[in-house]
Design goal:
alpha/beta, Arc Repressor Mutant, subunit A, D-Maltodextrin-Binding Protein, domain 2, 5-stranded mixed sheet, 4-stranded mixed sheet, 13 strands, transcription regulation, transcription, LysR_HTH_N
């Protein structure tokens, strides 16, 4: 049991609803449920009673709740002291991201880092992959986020966050009755793709399955993509990260996509080049942030 588990436990006690608590914590309901189950197994007791109206803490859960609040209060005092030290860290960090990467990460971790490190001047933006690589190579950028792992002797590449592939399917489509979709289901199926990240992921999966995908529409606009799916032009494989599945009409359903290679986001830094203190702090922060959300 760790601090993050206690924080998630206390959040669920306050919200009395797994869905609401998961949304407030920016994790999946399954991830929150697994964490609570691990705590129950570790303690050997049930912490919540479950009903159609939500969850309520058991007697043991209420006891843990009181202790957890005290523990978290003391922990906050420790982190406040550390944050005073963080305020002594000054510097700049320039982060470049592959196109489509920022919506997968969302703004939350960037804003949290800025809040916790007010004296670090953080800038970040999306660019074409070639521009990102060039800026990392010439030292303009300190850190590069990419979904595709760049095969280069110039960079250290560290995967840190596994993404969640889904498929938007018209309700009357033959694939709508399946419990999940595989790459073989995409063979001879008309595809509507949105953005370069989804495009290259699907093309790579299909190539490894020895067929060329039948792409009928390719757009960078998610609204156009959803309109095409709703019109029955095809299905749309789509990658989710910290962002949620888009609200869809009654004509569209969301199916899990079990792709051969689960896409991940990677942190790239220049090989054999020490990071500044502020850039290292940024990388360490991101690894910790997403470690608790996978």
């Amino acid at each position: 049991m760790d601090i993050k588990s206690l924080e998630f436990f206390v959040r669920l006690c306050k919200d009395n609803n797994v869905s609401v608590a998961a949304e407030n914590l920016f994790i999946s309901q399954q991830g929150l449920s697994r964490m609570i189950k691990r705590m129950e197994n570790e303690l050997g007791v049930k912490l919540f009673r479950r009903s159609n109206r939500g969850v309520t803490p058991t007697v043991e859960g209420k006891l843990l709740w009181e202790h957890a609040k005290n523990i978290l209060s003391e922990y906050q005092k420790v982190t406040d002291s550390i944050n005073l030290n963080n305020n002594l860290i000054h510097g700049t960090v320039n982060v470049v991201l592959e196109l489509g990467c920022l919506p997968l990460l969302t703004l939350s971790p960037f804003l949290r880092f800025i809040e916790e490190h007010p004296n670090v001047d953080l800038s970040f933006g999306e660019h074409r992959e070639t521009i990102c690589q060039a800026q990392l190579s010439d030292g303009t950028a300190d850190v590069f986020f990419a979904v595709k792992s760049v095969d280069s002797k110039q960079f250290d590449v560290s995967p840190f966050y596994a993404l969640n592939p889904i498929v938007y399917v018209p309700k009357n489509h033959v694939l709508a009755i399946k419990s999940f979709i595989t790459v073989e289901d995409l063979r001879d199926t008309k595809l509507v793709l949105c953005g370069s990240t989804n495009y290259y992921t699907v093309v790579k999966d299909c190539a490894e399955a020895n067929f060329v995908p039948n792409i009928v529409v390719c757009s960078t606009d998610i609204n156009i993509t959803m309109q095409c799916v709703q019109s029955g032009l095809g299905v749309s494989p789509f990658i989710l990260g910290m962002n949620k599945a888009l609200p869809s009409s009654e004509d569209i359903i969301v199916q899990p996509y079990r792709c051969q290679n689960i896409p991940q986001i990677h942190i790239l830094t220049k090989k054999n080049t020490p990071l500044s203190v502020s850039a290292q702090k940024f990388c360490d922060y991101f690894f910790r942030y997403f470690e608790t959300r996978t």
